[in-house]
Amino acid sequence: METQNQECCPKFEVEKWDKKTINWENKLFLKETISTFFHIPFPPTIGKKVMKMHTSAQKAEATIQDKSEALILFRDPSAFKSEIFYSVSKQVEGANNTTISGSFVACVFDGPYNNAPKFIKQMENYLKEKDQIAKDYYVHYAYCPKCAKESGHNYMILFALV
Q1: Beta bridge mates, 86
Q2: What is the CATH number of domain 19-161?
Q3: 89-142 tens-digit pLDDT
Q4: Residue 111 Ramachandran class (φ > 0 left, ψ -120 to 50 alpha, else beta)
Q5: Cα atoms in the 13 Å half-sphere on the side-chain side of 109
Q6: Nearest alpha carbon to residue 159 among 93, 98, 108, 96
Q7: pLDDT digits (tens, 9 = 90+) for 33-80
Q8: What number of other Cβ atoms are within 10 A of residue 47's Cβ?
Q9: CB 137 within 8 Å of CB 161
Q10: How far apart are CA 156 and CA 133, in angstroms?
């Protein structure tokens, strides 16, 4: 498998996710929450929470084997709280296990984190053309900051629950 950095993020395949409809039925995730300030997370907190979930999944042998299918989703239920969902292959004892179900429209965007509101507007226009309305959004960032810089792309997938 080709990676940006052999120890880090797998090469992102835009065409695999862009403008696709995905149906999840009780898709397994680990869940953590972090504090934000008007939707801006504190970066060290993200890394600690993701590493905690990753370590728990590894110990339980619950990591997703196909790295192109592994997802870390972010959802902001308020301006001061963000939820992180780490996809796993099975329940992890002692972790905050949860599931996500529903029909999602996925679109890929390339740009800085602070463009997310602009990308959500673009996504809403795309959904409107299909006579759909988003009930909620989840975001997956394809690359960590280091790999985004190396690749010259900062891909994100917006998953709109429709």
Answers
A1: 30, 72
A2: 3.20.80.10
A3: 999 999 999 999 999 999 999 999 889 899 999 999 999 999 999 999 999 999
A4: left
A5: 22
A6: 108
A7: 988 887 777 767 888 899 999 999 999 999 988 887 889 999 998 888
A8: 11
A9: yes
A10: 20
3-class DSSP state for residue 67? coil
Nearest of 85, 89, 96 to residue 66 by alpha carbon: 89
pTM: 0.89
Find all residues with CB under 8 Å of 15, minimum gap 6, and list them: none
Ranges of each domain in the chain? 19-161
Q: Which residues contact 10 (CB under 8 A, 6 or more apart)?
A: 1, 2, 3, 4, 67, 68
And the tokens for 75? 């959802």
Give the residue among 61, 84, 58 at the shortest CA–CA distance from 71: 84
